[in-house]
Amino acid sequence: MLRILALLVESNEPLFEVLRNSLRDRQRPIDFIRADTLKDAVSILRERRGWIEIVILDLSLPDSQGKNTFYKLQRQFPDVLIAVIAKDIGDADRIDLAQNGAIDCLVRNGVFDSDRLYERIVESVDSNKPTSDNLQVRHETDIRELLRGELDTILSPMSKRIERIERTDRYMKAAKVIGATVAAAVAATMGLLHFFR
Q1: Is the terminal CB of the chain with fewer CB neighbours within 10 Å at N or C?
Q2: pLDDT (tens digit, 9 = 90+) per residue, 52-87?
């Protein structure tokens, strides 16, 4: 079975270890990347776009609190699956998060149901797998973006060189014109001098 790559956004180190260990040795392996803050999570998701399949997001982070944490992340990455973990959250907020795309909202009061979280992760990732056509389009888009970046890296210095060559070429043409003009002027002067002798 394919491994699942999850981003666990959790600032509490002991809780991170508990979550990771409780989800580690399962039939379908889950690999974790950790972010301490929402800002770090956004950075990681940008760097690894298309690789991270699910985000497990604590709503109590140093740089973001409450359900707006979910909305901030979802706005920037609408195609990423997000499971929410919250210490204190009411039923109305849980329903709101679920209706707006959270795949699960676990309340942690010292203990949480890791089996339920594991099942929701696997179920959501499997049901969100792209079809082969979508995968081909995403792959082609990724290749185009990569090539565009590589071409920019290659062509930028080349275009500067071309500009320098064109500038040099213009200077050379100008020098030839000036040289021809000077040569004509010298010839005319010599002719005049010869004529007046």
Answers
A1: C
A2: 888 999 998 999 988 899 999 999 998 889 988 887
Alpha-carbon dihedral sign for residues 64, 82, 24, 21? positive
| 8 Å CB contact between 87 and 116 | no
53 near 60, Cβ under 8 Å? Answer: no
Phi, psi torsion values for 30, nearest 5 degrees = -120, 125
* Spans of all domains in the chain: 4-129
Residue whose pair of structure tokens reads 């040569």 in the numeric block:
183
DSSP classification of residue 133:
H
Comparing CA positions, the residue from 122, 119, 79, 120 lying closest to residue 101 is 79
First vs last Cα of the chain: how many Å apart? 103
Which pTM does this prediction carry? 0.62
User: The tokens of 57 are what?
Assistant: 């997001």
pLDDT band at 125 (very low <50, low <70, confident <90, very high): confident
CB 38 within 8 A of CB 73: yes
d(CA 68, CA 50): 24
CA distance 138 to 150: 18
What sections of the chain are H helices per DSSP? 13-24, 38-47, 68-76, 91-99, 114-127, 132-195
| Residues in Cβ contact with 108 at an 8 Å cutoff, skipping those fewer than 6 apart | 15, 85, 86, 87
Which residue shows structure tokens 């981003």? 7
